[in-house]
TrEMBL record, chains A, B:
This is Phosphate acyltransferase. One of its GO terms (molecular function) is acyltransferase activity. Belongs to the PlsX family. Pfam families: FA_synthesis. It catalyses: a fatty acyl-[ACP] + phosphate = an acyl phosphate + holo-[ACP]. Its main location: cytoplasm. The gene is plsX. It is an enzyme of class 2 (transferase). Catalyzes the reversible formation of acyl-phosphate (acyl-PO(4)) from acyl-[acyl-carrier-protein] (acyl-ACP). This enzyme utilizes acyl-ACP as fatty acyl donor, but not acyl-CoA. It is found in: Cytoplasm. It comes from the Bacteria. Its EC number is 2.3.1.274.
Length: 338, 338
């Protein structure tokens, strides 16, 4: 942060995810100390206050009371009936300009619904998209997959906008210098696929703002060849959940095969730590969370199982998005003829 | 096999896959000995003959010479320009009644194209489908996923027919007593998903011949909850290839994490055999191959990396399909009002 930037203020839903409010509050305080951001905690004041006191921060951090909550398993549309839920109030703060970005953990679909009800779409964006990050073959490199479920039906034009937004988020939020965008398809060649993707391909090739690198087959999603992969929300949602399932199967195979025989049992004992790492990296479900792209505000959703470090990371992403004016950049590219 | 059944005769493409013709010929001879089937080997006579001689079987097994070949990487439509390829001649034998089923290894798309050109669709089937088998969390249990790429666009009625065919193949070829059919979707509840699957759901619920067990989310494909999962060919193809990619990522994670430190290196040495098993089970690509459903003949495609045992298994599936009159059963259910 340089001296000319003003301090950004981020609204944090303190009640979402498995470890709320303890880990959320702790992560928010870490962000405040390490990133120099202002934070507003949204949720049950009775639950948040003791956590702040424990960290001697009750006098320096604002709380906005929101008595209702939206659970992980609830349908996104539930937010309509819970206007005082922490996720809705968090979005309210952004809408009212009392915060510049929203960070929440947990139910991504509900967060998207709340963002749309409260903040709305970016002008010019026809459909918002949920972006998810998946691991790749390259250590430390992730791929941004979108849309993973904001929409059930899609049109070529939507995919084009997803590609544009994905490229900007990859570059200015995730820090990829020259992002490569792929279009999820059943073959590499131009002209492959169903009508939707064949038409989208032509739009992507002809859009100078999209760093389009061609079709991405299913097996290439996680090779690291692409930084951003676009698909319709139905496909993306199935794929994301499928990845979680495949990760579980992989872990199950390890559990069944590794301990066989006495050498296996000794080996397991020796490799306890290494296996812990394997488990962590294969638990694709833990890569969850996401970016809400195309809403008229910066909204980052951490995975429901996030602890303080995960919340800190999500807040860092929100700050990157603000510092790099991602929303303005999207708008600029929408104004130009596409 | 009981005394009343006549010996079935199966045409085998001896030139497909990574280990042709040696392993194909060996697998075919195993099937002949163990399953009591007649076999016809199709391909380059010069290549097949020495293999038969090696097994002292040159006098007892027929060869049909087919000089051309279709490679793994070739587009399915190439078969049009290679009428004398082993896969096309294999299908010719079925068409002419000189064999009752076709077995090949390798390029499933090309095999489907050849089957359609030569044998055609089963009367009443609007679109054929390629079925693939994936491993599940339950040891030894697989799930039949279809369509994995015979069609790029789909209609609800096609999915209904896929479900019907998948259930019959699951029961009478794969030996699942009471197969459960799932519809791949983004949520479990009725009414979820895009127009295609929402409409297909209603058709499946109302079809008394389909043992429909509801929507199957991405994460449930490999849990073993369903025996058959239906989806459009675009989705299925992406998913199948994605599973291969995820398997590779999982193996890569093992390679990177397990050997860390001295205990890790000792552990690896101790677990060599167990890790070999893990590798084999996680190599989802090796689960490839498939069933061609909806063509007017029994066609089983083994994976391109199949050795003799894989070919034997594929021939066993073909025999099961013939013995259990799967094609007639599909026809019967199509005649009834759907």
């Amino acid at each position: 942060m340089n001296g000319w930037e003003k301090t950004v203020r981020i609204a944090i839903d303190a009640m979402g995810g498995d470890y709320a409010p303890q880990e959320i509050v702790q992560g928010a305080l870490l962000a405040r100390a390490q990133l120099g951001v202002d934070i507003v905690l949204v949720g049950s004041a009775e639950a948040i206050l003791p956590e702040l006191r424990r960290h001697n921060a009750a006098q320096s951090v604002e709380i906005v009371d929101a008595p209702e909550q939206v659970g992980m398993g609830e349908e996104p549309t539930i937010v309509r009936r819970k206007p005082n839920s922490s996720i809705m109030v968090t979005m309210d703060l952004v809408k009212q300009g009392r915060a510049e970005a929203a960070v929440a953990a947990g139910n991504t679909g509900a967060a998207m619904a709340a963002a749309l009800f409260r903040i709305g779409r970016l002008p010019g964006i026809e459909r918002p998209a949920i972006g998810a990050m998946l691991p790749t073959l390259k250590l430390g490199k992730r791929v941004l997959l979108l849309d993973v479920g904001a929409n059930t039906d899609s049109r070529p034009r939507f995919l084009e906008q997803f590609a544009l937004m994905g490229a900007l988020y990859s570059r200015y939020v995730l820090g990829v210098a020259e992002p490569k965008v792929g279009l999820l398809n059943i073959g590499e060649e131009r002209g492959k696929g169903n009508e939707l993707v064949a038409d989208a391909y032509e739009m992507l090739v002809n859009n100078p703002h999209v760093p389009f690198a061609g079709n991405c087959e299913g097996r290439d999603v996680m090779t690291g060849r692409f930084d951003v992969v676009v698909c319709d929300g139905f496909m993306g949602n199935v794929l994301l959940k499928f990845a979680e399932g495949v990760g579980l199967v992989a872990l199950q195979i390890l559990r069944e095969e590794l301990p066989r025989g006495i050498p296996g049992k000794i080996g397991i004992a020796l490799m306890r730590n290494n296996l812990g790492q394997v488990k962590q990296r294969m638990d694709y479900a833990a890569y969850g969370g996401g970016l809400l792209l195309g809403v008229n505000g910066v909204c980052i959703i951490a995975h429901g199982s996030s602890k303080a470090q995960g919340i800190l990371s999500a807040i860092r992403l929100a700050k990157e998005a603000l510092d790099n004016r991602v929303l303005e950049r999207i708008q600029q590219q929408l104004i130009l003829p596409m």
